């Protein structure tokens, strides 16, 4: 069974798909400590890029310019991906929008969003790459933060992603 090979980021395993994904997620991790709002902006970008990768693999990708909400609606409607996964993409989009348009975000929200992004990354890798990938040990787990109610699926999805 494969394990997470760290490359200085909790998202390094995505490098085989797209180095831009790793770069954007890595920036979100770097900005977390000093600027949680910017971290949330980067996580929104990460969510957009990852959703586009999912859509391309499902054969439902239209264009880079398409609104994220439209893309996620199509993924929900036209694919068999778990509803909870699509909801997590929406959660990243919403907190990212708050960061971009209202300059709103705190450490707890950014930490939770980082954890959600990590879960989506693991789901992606298990779905399109290595089904046996084990990535439950994340440096993100060493941080403490409060989770906003927006991320209502994190616990149930985490249990599924970290199952043996």
What brief labels describe this structure?
164 residues; disordered C terminus; disordered N terminus
How does this model look, in words?
The chain has 164 residues and is mainly α. It has one domain (12-161). The protein contains six helices and no strands. It has helices at 19-32, 36-58, 68-78, 83-102, 107-128, 154-161. The longest helix is centred in the N-terminal third of the chain and has 23 residues, at 36-58. It is globular, with a radius of gyration of 15 Å. It starts with 18 loop residues before the first helix and ends with a helix. The relative contact order is 0.17.
What is the rounded distance between the termini?
10 Å
DSSP helix count? 6
Uncertain spans: 1-6, 142-164
Order of helices and strands: HHHHHH
């Amino acid at each position: 069974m494969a394990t997470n090979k760290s490359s200085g980021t909790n998202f390094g395993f995505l490098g085989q798909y797209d180095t831009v994904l790793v770069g954007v997620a890595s920036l979100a991790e770097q900005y977390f400590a000093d600027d949680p709002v910017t971290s949330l902006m980067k996580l929104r970008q990460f969510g957009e890029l990852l959703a586009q990768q999912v859509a391309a693999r499902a054969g439902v990708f239209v264009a880079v310019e398409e609104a994220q909400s439209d893309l996620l609606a199509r993924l929900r409607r036209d694919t068999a991906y778990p509803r909870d996964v699509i909801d997590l993409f929406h959660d990243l989009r919403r907190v990212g929008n708050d960061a971009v348009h209202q300059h709103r975000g705190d450490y707890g929200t950014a930490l939770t969003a980082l954890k959600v992004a990590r879960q989506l990354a693991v789901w992606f890798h298990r779905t399109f790459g290595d089904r046996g990938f084990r990535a439950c040990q994340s440096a993100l787990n060493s941080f403490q933060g409060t989770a906003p109610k927006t991320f209502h699926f994190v616990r149930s999805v985490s249990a599924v992603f970290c199952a043996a």
